[in-house]
Amino acid sequence: MRPRLKAWYTAGALSLLVTPALAQQPVVEDLSPGSGRSSFYDQAATREEAGGSLVLFNQVQRNQEEMRQLRGQVEELRYQLDQLKRQTRQQYMDLEDRLAAGSAPGGQGGQAALDEASSSSDEASSSSQGGGASGASDAGARADYQAAFAKVQAREFEAATQAFEAFVSEHPNTRLTANAYYWLGELHSAGSDLEAAETAFRRVLDDFPDSNKVPDALYKLGLLKARQGEPEASRELLDRVREEYPDSSAASLASDFLRQSGN
User: Fold this and answer.
1) CA geometry: angle at 29 spanning 25 and 36, to 5°?
2) How many whole angstroms separate alpha carbon 176 and alpha carbon 19?
3) What does pTM read for this prediction?
4) pLDDT tier at 224, thresholds 50, 70, 90
5) Fewer C-beta neighbours within 10 Å, C or N terminus of the chain?
6) Per-residue pLDDT, 85
7) How far apart are CA 211 and CA 214, in angstroms?
8) Sign, Cα dihedral of 194, 196, 200, 203
9) Kind plus residue range of the DSSP H or E element containing 53
10) What residues contact 72, with CB distance under 8 A and at least 6 apart?
11) Per-residue pLDDT for 243 more than 50?
């Protein structure tokens, strides 16, 4: 019995000594492609990559939605701007009619009365020069002018612009041509095409210095320069109206504008 007990104790002691030593050995895991551990890491990496792709996809979707919203806002602003231009144009023309009505002889007929008076004076001038083919040509010019001006009265501003442009092209040297250029200036100014408006008003001043539209063209050109941010040029034109045409309605309007603007 004693030898067996001694052997058993000896084996137990050895096992106690070996176990801590084994516990201290580093654990080496199999990460080869065929092992289950490697498969786990591959799956985790795949999930992380898929998660990153999903984040990018969601970001792209959000950016596209924001672009659609911005595009819609731009379209809405463009529509509002077009509406504002139309309203401004109509208000401008209404104001012009009221001002012209106050300056027309007897206060009746407004701007149409002034233009009809100009047309009548042209007819008388043509008749005094002998008529004939020239008279027929003037009659055609009057008809074209009245048709264009009727579009202004009907508030068909784009059509009126086209009609007056056609008029000055077909009738470049009649007394009504100055009136046509003046109305082109009015129409372009109401549509905020200030460069085209200035060109039209200056054609009245440069090419038709004897026209009864010169004072009005000077006044409107002065207002145009104020809108363009050129106060000195504006005052020079308005002062010119008052000095050269002191009895005109344009001179009175120029004085009112200078007084209201503090000049």
Assistant:
1) 155
2) 120
3) 0.55
4) very high
5) N
6) 60
7) 6
8) positive
9) helix 36-103
10) none
11) yes
Name the token pair of 233: 């040029």
* Residue 157, H or E segment: helix 157-170
Residue type at position 129? Q
What does each C-alpha distance from 166 to 43, 122, 133, 162, 177 come to in angstroms? 77, 20, 21, 6, 11
Q: Which residue has the tokens 């000195």?
A: 232
Burial class (CB in 10 A: 0-12, 13-18, 19+), 217: buried
The stretch 61-81 carries a mean pLDDT of 77
Q: How far apart are CA 262 and CA 2, in angstroms?
A: 131
Per residue in 193-222, pLDDT (tens digit) is 999 999 999 999 999 999 999 999 999 999
Place of tokens 């002998």: 130
**Cβ contact 221:201 at 8 Å:** yes
- The average confidence (pLDDT) of the chain is 74
For the chain, how big is the Rg over CA atoms in Å? 45
pLDDT score of 57: 78
Instruction: Extract the tokens encoding 262.
Output: 């503090």
Number of residues in the chain: 263
Compute CA distances 150 → 140, 144, 237, whole Å: 15, 10, 30
Q: Measure the N-to-C terminal CA separation of the chain; round to a whole number of Å.
A: 134
Q: Tell me the two tokens of residue 6.
A: 């001694």
Residue type, 75: E
Most distant CA atoms of the chain, gap in Å? 164
How far is Cα 184 from Cα 193, in angstroms, rounded to an integer? 11
Angle at 93 between CA 91 and CA 95, to 5 degrees: 70
